[in-house]
Write a structure and sequence with these properties.
By secondary structure, the chain is α+β, with helices and mostly antiparallel strands. The protein contains 3 helices and 6 strands; from the N terminus they run H-H-E-E-E-E-E-E-H. It is globular.
Length: about 190
């Protein structure tokens, strides 16, 4: 007797309507068209582990009675927690409204109507966001006014390092969103 497998989305593999649109899928909400990569998750996990030790140190310093030191340690721990959470949010997000590139220090949103084309190009890309560059693939977008937007995805960032197939799927998914919601030029 085969047992049905229940996925994280709450969908059973025994369902006959595998291609049906789920009721909770809302194309107006911003969503990442790919999963965060293992490098991004590992770095964030290490930062959260460090922040746990920092919070423990904050508690010990507060029990000793050095309130100024405890406050400084608490602020440092909260900034490390914030950095870890921001790192998990970084990447490309899509919705019916457009494309959003979330970086560590800033976010830029562009409407689909302002994007002329998305293309995957071979160019020097930054390795894990560090200053060192290597030859790789990048998903770029060209704006209607001729301006080149920042690189959206690379195959050497924290989401796709050593995962070429995942980069190709993510680039294709972003392209599919663009094809679906970008107005047709007549």
């Amino acid at each position: 007797m085969p047992l049905p497998f229940l996925t994280a989305d709450g969908v059973s593999d025994a369902d006959d309507d595998a291609d049906a649109v789920l009721a909770h899928v809302d194309h107006d909400r911003w969503r990442r068209p790919y999963r965060p990569g293992p490098w991004r998750v590992a770095i964030s996990a290490v930062l959260l582990l460090v922040s746990a030790f920092m919070l423990l140190a904050t508690m010990i310093i507060a029990f000793v009675g050095a309130w100024a030191g405890a406050a400084v340690c608490l602020v440092a721990a909260l900034s490390v927690v914030g950095s870890a959470l921001r790192m998990l949010q970084m990447g490309v997000w899509v919705s019916r409204a457009g494309l959003r590139r979330v970086g560590f220090f800033g976010t830029r949103s562009v409407a689909w109507s302002e994007i002329v084309e998305l293309r995957t190009v071979q160019q020097p890309v930054r390795l894990l966001g560090l200053p060192r560059t290597v030859q790789g693939q990048a998903l770029t977008a060209a704006a209607r006014d001729g301006a080149e937007l920042p690189v959206l995805l690379t195959d050497h960032n924290a989401d796709f390092l050593s995962r070429a197939e995942a980069f190709d799927r993510a680039a294709d998914t972003v392209g599919a969103w663009a094809d679906e919601y970008r107005p047709v030029a007549v």
